[in-house]
Amino acid sequence: MPIENAPPVRRRSTNLAQGVVDALTQRILLGQLKPGEKLPSESTIVLEHGVSRTVVREAISKLQASGLVETRHGIGTFVLEQHARQGLRLHVDTVASVRNMLELRLGLEVQAVALAALRRTDAQLAHMRQALDDYRACLANNDSCVEEDKRFHQLIAEATGNTFFSEIMQHLGTAMIPRTQVKADERGGADFAKLGQLASLEHEAIFNAIKRQDPDAARAAMVLHLTNSRDRFSGE
């Protein structure tokens, strides 16, 4: 028999702080809070998230430890420039290093896309759709489309609901899409315009699987995309 007037279950401050960390991290990684920009005030964060000042301070400490922000005493807390953040330093400028990067992404993104298919929101799906539309428009202008390509994959990581995926992808940065960084004498006959068009078709297959919330199809589409990218670039 249920006990009447039972006291409400109190959420631990650590869980509350992590919720604030996740929300602010997402805003930073999606560019809603840009490098050099000041975070909302402590009072504003308290009101936005319905938590105490102690929880907010714990969350800010976690963000500092992750290298996303720095606090300037008497001024406020600011988003760090990407190059100032502690993280991975990868140099991808040869065909061999491109292959290595794509192998790394296979290990990471195949699981991420399956989680994204299960957990994505309608709003996140809409952001992915916009990223793909921007990518196609960029291809039409014969641009490299690295930023648009990276944004689509970053949004997939965000949709997992696991900030570790999105943080790792953010640390990879443009090294994640390395095709334009390879030295000219190693590019061979790679036709980047054609590669971009093929990648666009593969992106659509990934998106459609996420839209249907089909994790198995999403995994298969991501495996196909990344292995094809690896093999096309190396001329296999």
From TrEMBL:
Record GO terms (molecular function): DNA binding; DNA-binding transcription factor activity
PROSITE patterns, sorted: HTH_GNTR
InterPro entries linked to this entry: GntR_C, TF_FadR/GntR_C, Tscrpt_reg_HTH_GntR, WH-like_DNA-bd_sf, WH_DNA-bd_sf
Gene3D superfamilies, per database record: GntR ligand-binding domain-like (1.20.120.530), Winged helix-like DNA-binding domain superfamily/Winged helix DNA-binding domain (1.10.10.10)
Domain (HTH gntR-type) ranges: 14-82
Keywords: DNA-binding, Transcription, Transcription regulation
Pfam families xref list: FCD, GntR
Name of the protein this chain belongs to: FadR family transcriptional regulator
